């Protein structure tokens, strides 16, 4: 049987569950591009041939893009060579690997870079000798200064940029290597839901992912400041370059947690908070680099980190890391799960009226709309709603579809007839009037539609608190191409949310927040909804 591969939202959920279970960590690594070392080694031994990587062929396209692309002058005349063709005795690692290694082997003319790296690691010694010459004779210092100056000039002539990469933010103090403890979280900016831009955009900044850290142990007794390092890295941008996209401009801001929220979870700070509270600290700058990092020192307490792109509506995945010099078992800091609202629904109680209690004018209108059978079908409901909404010139709408009208009938059809009687239609009518009031309230620019960010506030006003992830799903389903939400989509979204909450509540008989479905129940429920 051919394997079944998940796609779309199913694939995304499966991936998230796998990550939550530890997939991709050291103890449960993901094979790069599906390659299995043992299988590849066995194949080479069996064929008695040298390994050639089909996923990294010896062609110009493997070298890179732009300046290292196939048509670049910098890649002309490049020869692909195995290590034994470069030197007589190639060795990958000698006497173990360490982050302080300078040059493990020999690869032609790499002495210059190795020497500069060596001087970089001994920058404290360099500052002592040049230009003061303390600790050495003047003659020795002069010779050393000349050698360093010459070497620096050579380096600047050959190289334009030097990057030193580390696995972790280890700090070297004299001969002691000090390991930092760290916390990590992966997140994403998504257009219309979590891509709010920086604080220059107060209307949307609050929708960015938010993380809380607690600084609990000051650096020194008698002081309050805690030192730590924050690093924000955007993921998978090299692959995006092949699609013509460059690095996004990224950074982060800190805000102190207000007293009423200290120690609490399930709280996503909203627009009003950031309008009235300034940043406590921030990254040194917003820049379009793969990673932005800043060393900070703040008084002990709880803080919110808000990573963002500079402009709103820029999409990217990111990794946020926070490092401290405290031991790994210290509670100096922690990153909880992304700050988010607890999922909940607080809907006003429905007023179920007897037919005798319903206004006579409404009854008369219903008789005209329903026809002889005195019930409203899907088609009749669609005609009614579109005729009424068409009279509201301040609303932009494509009109209610049969599918959305069927969802409304499913929500209100208490007797299972597939149609709405007088009392059922009256409850639905009151709901739609309430939804219209909310829609107009949060259509702040009176455009006749809501932005996706206004939509989030409107949903909360209607009684629904949702996580970032759930809101992203709503945006994908109910927004137009320009990320706007018209009235019919707004109503359809609210009706569907209410239906799903009510259905779950009915099936969660023991009120533990979990339900169990077999396949028949699952397919019946999803097809009906």
Notes on the structure:
It is a single chain. The chain has 529 residues and is α+β, with helices and mostly antiparallel strands. The chain has 4 domains: 1-30, no CATH class; 37-80, no CATH class; 180-337, Jelly Rolls (Sandwich), CATH 2.60.120; 355-528, Orthogonal Bundle (Recoverin, domain 1), CATH 1.10.238.10. It has 16 helices and 14 strands. The chain has a 4-stranded antiparallel sheet, with no helix packed on it. Strands 4-9-6-7 form a 4-stranded antiparallel sheet, with no helix packed on it. Strands 1-2 form a two-stranded antiparallel ribbon. Strand 1 and strand 2 (176-178) form a beta hairpin. Helix 11 runs parallel beside helix 15 (487-507) and helix 12 (422-442) packs across helix 15 (487-507). The radius of gyration is 31 Å and the shape is elongated. 21% of the residues are buried. Residues 1-6, 102-107, 109-130, 132-141 and 170-175 have low confidence and may be disordered.
